[in-house]
Every structure is written in structure tokens, then in C-alpha cells.
Design goal:
Helix content: 25-40%
Number of helices: 4
Number of strands: 9
Largest sheet: 7 strands, mixed
CATH superfamily: Gcn5-related N-acetyltransferase (GNAT)
CATH class: Alpha Beta
Length: 179
């Protein structure tokens, strides 16, 4: 058990990539991900959601930011991928260590992402979610995200899993205010 509740949310650096990839993969893929509520293991075969080269490539884009939730003793416990697209900020790969899920880390990362979006003069945040994950959709909706009606086929890279069932993405959006 940690002796401190101190944490920091900050922009990730390339040196953070191995730890970020471990957290992302552990909460989305493989049997270990079933410890948390964000698992896709029953929907998508494979143990990887991403790898170090993929995250490094995303991190190198000038429109991209990764935020990490860092604990001084436990290291990186969560991360989120953000990509500025016009006046909107895309949110993806929101990940929290499975042992720490439901502790508020995901909400803190989301609020930090929304604050960054406001600082970048974005008017909205958006994301894509697999709609069969009812509990995840409900969580995002409780946090102000609403379905846009837009859908697209699941077009994942086969290196990062193959659907076990037919899948698609739905888009959610949250309008931002300057309050």
C-alpha cells in the first residue's frame, strides 16, 4: 500500500513509452485485463492493444499529446492519447492500471484532457468506442459524452488483435465550455 496520495498528471515523454504500453495492454487485452472493467479480451483476440513503436509513432505527431498519471512510488498508473483535429480533440486509449480502476484515475485523466482541449481552443472532445461495451458507454455518458450517430467499421491493425465477433465503432462527443 502506498504511503502517499500524491500524483501528477503531465505530458508523457519518450522514456515513458515502455511503462505506458504495459498499462495500455494490461487493461485492454489478454487474460490479465479481465481483472479490470475495461477489458476487450472477450471481444478481440490477442495480447496487444499497442506496442512501443506504435506509441512512439503517435507521440511524434505534432498534433498529438499523451498524458500520464504518475505516482511517485508506483510509477505510471494511467495514460490517455490525445490528437488535435481542427477545433476538436480526439481522446483515445484512456488506460488505467487494472488494480487501480474505479479509483478516480480515469476521471482525473479525462478532466486533464478536457482542460488541455480548452487551452488549445478546442470546442469539443470526441472519441470512438465499441458499442457492445455498455458499461464503458455509460461511464462516458455520465461524464458528459453523447453519441453523435456516426459509426464506422472496426478497422484495427491485426497486429493488435483480431475481432472474435463482428465489431464497429460509435462516436461520442462532448461540447466544451470555458467555465
Amino acid at each position: 500500500m502506498s504511503s502517499t496520495n500524491y500524483f501528477i498528471i503531465e505530458k508523457a515523454e519518450p522514456a515513458d513509452i515502455p511503462q505506458m504500453v504495459a498499462v495500455i495492454n494490461s487493461c485492454y487485452r489478454g487474460d490479465g485485463s479481465k481483472q479490470g472493467w475495461t477489458t476487450e479480451a472477450d471481444l478481440i483476440a490477442g495480447d496487444l492493444r499497442t506496442d512501443e513503436a506504435d506509441v512512439a509513432q503517435l507521440m511524434a505527431k505534432p498534433t498529438t499529446t499523451f498524458l500520464v498519471y504518475r505516482h511517485p512510488e508506483e510509477g505510471i498508473l494511467g495514460s490517455v492519447y490525445l490528437d488535435k483535429q481542427g477545433d476538436r480533440l480526439y481522446l483515445g486509449m484512456l488506460s488505467v492500471n487494472t488494480a487501480k480502476q474505479a479509483s478516480g484515475i480515469g476521471g482525473r485523466l479525462m478532466r486533464a484532457a478536457e482542460e488541455l482541449a480548452r487551452l488549445e481552443a478546442c470546442t469539443a472532445m470526441f472519441m470512438q468506442v465499441i458499442p457492445v461495451r455498455d458499461e464503458l458507454l455509460a461511464w462516458y455518458e455520465r461524464n458528459g459524452y453523447v453519441p453523435t450517430g456516426e459509426r464506422k467499421p472496426f478497422d484495427g491493425d491485426p497486429r493488435f488483435g483480431v475481432p472474435r465477433v463482428p465489431l464497429e465503432f460509435v462516436f461520442l462527443e462532448k461540447k466544451l465550455t470555458n467555465l
